[in-house]
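User: Quick sanity check before I run a bigger batch. Here is a single chain. Can you write out its predicted 3D structure?
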Amino acid sequence: MDTQILPQKPQNFTCINCRFVSSNKKDYVRHLSTLKHKNRENDTNMIQKNPKKPQTSYECINCYKTYKYSSGLYRHKKKCMDHENGENGENGENLNYQLMLSKELILEVVKQQQNQIKELTNTIKELIPKVGNNITTTNQKFNIQVFLNEKCKDAINMSDFIKSIEVSLQQLDYTKHHGLVNGLSNVIIENMNKLGLYQRPIHCTDIKRESLYIKDDDNWEKDTNKEKIKRVIKNVSTKQFYALSKWTQENPDFQNNENKQNYYTHALVAIANNKEQNEEKIIKKLCSSSYIKE
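Assistant: Done. Predicted structure follows.
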């Protein structure tokens, strides 16, 4: 938004003695040369020079000329040619003063309106993202439900998916060399990829928030507390122990063979690693591999 520049307040020229105010310097200079101003200025100077000698004086209301005696003022009034002009000048000075007040009032109103516009603009800026997010969230929920219930309606249930998983010795060996997080994630992802996009029982809609939808009992539900995906990790982890047990049955002499004993020890350490500390890392990997773009 462009910054608005407020109009500068005009400079006023003021004559205190005559109560004259004007924003036009030429008018002010012309006023200083008038008889009215000079008389007032002389009177002021006289008062300042002789403050202790007040005396009665008679002043012409038209040109402000003063007389010591009323008779002098009476004769002056008959000759005062500035009477009509004096009234017009007084009216002009009043008009200038009113114009000055009007300009100041207008500037103040403009300033208040600009402040109100600024506050309104800030309010609108705050509201637009909220409105946009609400619309986006509503559309996203609608699109997800359509995708899951129509395109993925034939997806396998998670319970059946877990039953179908068999941890191979090759996968067990991968876990031994790369650790529990990579090994267990690899088992789930490999089996998930075999099914394809529309057949798999898990989809992620938001990697940052780890929003997962899991199908079980023929229904798609959001795994709000991550309870379902944690059960999946636990069940697949158990299958790794079954795979190692199967290996010991196929290698009954592993306790007497140093190489086989080392393999068993390292594999057991890898799959027995505290999975609770590694669950979040595994979930992040599963979210990345099952993420769908709207």
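The chain has a mean pLDDT of 78.

User: Great, the batch can go ahead then.
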